[in-house]
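We both want to read discrete structure tokens more fluently, so let's practise on a single case. Once you have written the record down, we can walk along the chain together.
***
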Amino acid sequence: MKVTLLGSGTSTGVPRLGGEEGVDWGLCDPADPRNRRSRVSILVENDAGKRLLVDTSPDLRSQLLACEIGRIDAVFWTHDHADHCHGLDDLRPLRYGRGGPIPGYAGTETVRRLRQRFGYVFAGQYGYPTIVALDDLQNLRICEGFGIDHCQMPHGPAQSTAYRFDCDGKAIGYATDFSEITDDMLDVLDGCDILVVDCLRREPHPTHAHLGMALELVAATQADRAVLTHLDKSMDYQTLSGEVPAGVLVGFDGMVLLA
């Protein structure tokens, strides 16, 4: 299997808008292109060429163009926060030429909220076809040759979905936007070949994993390799790369890993 980090940044991206000159790099070196981070999303692909997209960030169009991705076979959402779903309309061109809508899946509450906010995507409107056929994850165990496991994670007062994708004896896990490690997370993510994990900053945060919590999850699940994502402007690529243990990588937009 292969996983591509389409985006690796926090909700405001890096650099962040603002500051005296309108561009705020924080502690990140603007000369290092790996510090330029769009909002998080990943693509998982197997040897048969089947592609699963996780989340539709506001930067989805530019991400897919940069990685030359013109087709997906299904889409999954972790939750309905803007930085994870507001690029949903960018799926429209990927619907062209298909015999039907793109299959889509999310947790029960996320399904409800997405339908409420993007009704035209899931039901069509004014003669435009349905873009995504949205279903609850409770109805799914396998998709396009991938075994799918999942669980809900605490995300401050909200929840986010962790995913595990299994294919041909390999496993890729995705756990972003969590603020506590639970037994369910340990069960679902145990022994992944690659674990892509939330790591907002070094200091604790009320709704996200910080560096210590991210490394704790990696150790507890005994992941073969881990990749840190959802990084904010305090997380300079080179500096952070020098702090993490062996087997842990700092993610960047366009990063590709093979399991």
About this structure: The longest strand covers residues 146-155. Residues 2-258 form a domain with the Metallo-beta-lactamase; Chain A fold (CATH 3.60.15.10). DSSP finds eight helices and 16 strands in the chain. The chain has a mean pLDDT of 96.
